[in-house]
Amino acid sequence: MPEKIIVRAAAVQIAPDLTDGAGTLVRVLNALAEAAGKGAQLVVFPETFVPWYPYFSFVLPPVLTGAEHARLYEHAVVVPGPVTEAVAAAARRLGVVVVLGVNERDHGSLYNTQLVFDADGTLKLKRRKITPTFHERMIWGQGDGAGLKVVETAVGRVGALACWEHYNPLARYALMAQHEEIHVAQFPGSMVGQIFADQMEVTIRHHALESGCFVVNATGWLTEEQIASVTPDEKLQRALRGGCCTAIISPEGAHLVPPLKEGEGVLVADLDMSLIVKRKRMMDSVGHYARPELLSLNLDTRPAVPMHLAAAFPAADQNPLDHLPLERIRDEAADADADGDRTPDQRVAVLRGPAR
């Protein structure tokens, strides 16, 4: 019998420091040490946790968000940079795989970015949320297909999506088709109310069942003081409560530990990797239960870039036909011989090249 493989996973639900990105980083490093002390081999943090999720954009009109948006730029994370170096060092020292959500700054744009660090500190994946949701479109740019991939880590094959990307079935299927074993989900938390938590729970449990993988989900948390700092309007403050469901789900869609829906804490559960085969033996949605000749996914994994460099004209010493495939050159030469026209054709001579 093969050796039984158990992975201990931790999902962190804590509050960020809404005044200082460095303060949030300290909380991340402290939580990492706490989770590792409980034997965790995988530690997951909430969506864009460093420096903080832009809660202000959900409750304030755009005309009033300029100062907070600029402050988010000031504290945002550059990849690679000091924040990634600190988290990588902690992952390496503690021997844990870390999945961290950050606001990434890339020159003049911000992105909702998920970072996967392996247990040796290597940054295995940097992916950006492909479509920011509703108010988030005023804050973040769009990601691309280059990040829709599963990576090999010390705890197995890990894939990740952020928040309502889980409502994009093709994005989920892209990871399923790459045979993810542990799926990381990240949500902001402290938003919308209980209905958000309920919908989140349905979503992550369904993905676990459909993918036949474990799901580790982390949501953020805001204190009452932090909520008041975002907006003094008590009516708007109601939109910044609830919506938390930090959870760890088995491939059979069951909670491995009770979910955390209020307050701060760290959930820890053991993932019995044999449950993946147990589930997929019955239903493998990208294997024996799939019908790729009827339904399949086309994924463009090319990074989206704003500029492509190409020479407008060939160099002076370059044969203008050098870029043509050899087969096409031969075909055109053969056609010229077969058409019965014996008129000297300098083009054919060029195609054939010098005598050898």
From TrEMBL:
Signal peptide: none annotated. It comes from the Bacteria. One of its GO terms (molecular function) is nitrilase activity. Residues 7-273 form the CN hydrolase domain. Gene3D superfamilies: Carbon-nitrogen hydrolase. Residues 331-345 have a biased composition (Basic and acidic residues). InterPro entries: C-N_Hydrolase, C-N_Hydrolase_sf, Nitrilase, Nitrilase/CN_hydratase_CS, Nitrilases_CHs. Residues 331-356 are annotated as: Disordered. Belongs to the carbon-nitrogen hydrolase superfamily. Nitrilase family. This is Nit6803 family nitriliase. It comes from Methylobrevis albus. The lineage of its organism: Bacteria, Pseudomonadati, Pseudomonadota, Alphaproteobacteria, Hyphomicrobiales.
